[in-house]
Amino acid sequence: MEIALVGAPNSGKSTFFNAATLGNAEVGNRPFVTIKPNEGIAYVKVKCPHNELGKECNPKHGYCKNGWRFVPIKLWDVAGLVPQAWQGKGLGNQFLNDIMQAQALIHVLDASGSTDTEGNIVGAGNFDPEITLTFLEKEIAYWIKGIIERSLKEVKHVSADASVKILAKHLSGLGISEDQVKEVVNSSDEFKGRASEWNAESLLKFAERVREISKPMIIAANKADLSVAEQNIEKLKKKYSSKEIIPVSAEAELALRKASESGLIEYVPGESDFKELKDIPENQKKALEYIRNKVLKKFGSTGVQHVLNSVAFELLELIVVFPVEDQNRWSDSKGNVLPDAFLLKKGSTALDLAYKVHTEIGKRFVAAIDCRTGQKIGKETQLKQLDVIKIITR
């Protein structure tokens, strides 16, 4: 699974990226700190089934901490987007190309209003973050609309069905499938007939809708601990109730992750508190207490892990499934307990899991066993979140 961090310059994208991946993306209070996309590994967090087994797990990928399993995902931090990016302003064309293979987008928004759409620092409360929220979605839509418009000559003299196929061909480079194009076309009478017959407003609506389906977006309302941010977030939640808007302090998460890595505190990403493990220098202690009081107690977490989990399990409707070879020990042939954890689309079957493990396993699939119940299940049986499954092959 690949997720792209998007937003205006200086909104805190690179800080979010570093907090989620413990990477080293350059961070700074100036526009366009990120030029080339940074790629890293972040994690979604689920309760590990090893808690039921009473044995520690041995993950091949990701890690397990305090009973929580962290399953790896790919995260991109791309260049900031400015108004008129779809016309090539700033790093617009590069940005838009960079995000298009992602399955979902995280819009890192400066909820404090301390930066404008160009990334200039204006001071907390001096800019309305709603402007940034709406402009970014429009920029992506206008860019997709431009690609559609370049295909209109091809659809002038073909049937409506053929028009859909031509549209899908032109949009396939953006990671948009023919099924997704069909879904939007069938969603409204406005999109009936050939695309060449749609007016400019309909073309833009189509572009917006196809982006929503192919690249759903969540809002990470960053800098939530700064003055007026909380008020701004509540206003946005009220006005845009259909959007998922999560208060975030990426800077707080990064500080906690670094303090945990250095052994000063025990901290599990996404939790509502941390534990001090040794004497901490006074200035660092004050910073940690600020995070505890102004972020963790107020919002329940820094929001970074909440955002990642919401993208995976709500926007993309994924589940985590654990394939094993030994149905009693929940291990592989070498005795490693719950070594693998796979992200699958909700509704995936036992056969889908077999193919995810390996193409040959899928081809030789006979049946599977639900390791919790011991029941044999068929290839069409839909899997559930945190299932532990043994695959039987011929």
Automatic annotation (TrEMBL):
- Keyword Thylakoid attached: no
Q: Which CDD domains match?
A: TGS_MJ1332_like, Ygr210
* A Pfam family: MMR_HSR1
Alphabetically sorted, this entry's keywords are:
Coiled coil, Nucleotide-binding
Q: Which domain of life is it from?
A: Archaea
Is Zinc-finger found in the keyword set? Answer: no
**PROSITE patterns given in the database record:** G_OBG
What GO CC annotations are associated with the protein? cytoplasm
Q: Which residues form the OBG-type G domain?
A: 1-268
Q: Which GO terms describe its molecular function?
A: ATP hydrolysis activity; GTP binding
Question: Which ranges form a coiled coil?
Answer: 219-246
- PANTHER family according to UniProt: OBG GTPASE FAMILY, OBG-TYPE G DOMAIN-CONTAINING PROTEIN
Q: State the NCBIfam families in the record.
A: PRK09602.1
Q: Name the family.
A: Belongs to the RelA/SpoT family.
Any idea what this protein is called?
A: Redox-regulated ATPase YchF
Gene it is expressed from = ychF
